[in-house]
Specification:
The protein has 1 helix and 12 strands. By secondary structure, it is mainly beta. It comes from Mucilaginibacter myungsuensis. Pfam families: DUF386 (PF04074).
């Protein structure tokens, strides 16, 4: 997992062949003006813009993916996220859903952290994460980068 500010995004370009494309696109946008929905940037990179009420920590989704890396960028609001290494999660809810690229867990996060607007977290397949914890509306953008 990585946590940083969007203004530092370019330094992560060497970590994946599509990170440079994603961070260049993000820095060129008026993030507040982005329409809610799914935007295909290129083959293997899509953006999901959402605006939803935050949830309580007791009802969060605790999830991870096999086929994508998530770059989760907060646009507006205050968001808290939970995190735990996948290797330490022992309580899956069902089996991995290949079509949706997700598995959920009932384990508790090892830690929580908060993002402010303009900050992002990168979650790799080994990072189980609980997004959207908070009060009020949270507008965010999730970049799905195919591995």
């Amino acid at each position: 997992m990585i946590i940083d500010k969007l203004s530092n995004g370019a330094q992560y370009a060497p970590l994946h062949r599509n990170f440079g494309l994603a961070f260049d696109w993000l820095q060129a946008q008026d993030l507040e003006a982005l329409e809610i929905g799914i935007h295909q940037l290129s083959d293997g990179v899509k953006m999901i813009v959402s605006e939803n009420p935050g949830v309580e920590a007791t009802v969060q989704k605790f999830e991870c993916h096999n086929q994508n890396i998530d770059i989760q960028l907060l646009i507006r609001g205050n968001e808290t996220m939970g995190w735990k290494p996948r290797q330490d999660c022992t309580q899956p809810i069902g089996k991995f859903d290949d079509e949706r690229d997700v598995i959920f867990f009932t384990d508790r996060p090892d830690m929580y952290f908060s993002l402010l607007p303009g900050q992002f977290a990168i979650f790799y397949p080994d990072d189980v994460h609980a997004p959207m914890i908070g009060d009020g509306l949270i507008k965010k953008l999730v970049v799905k980068v195919a591995i």
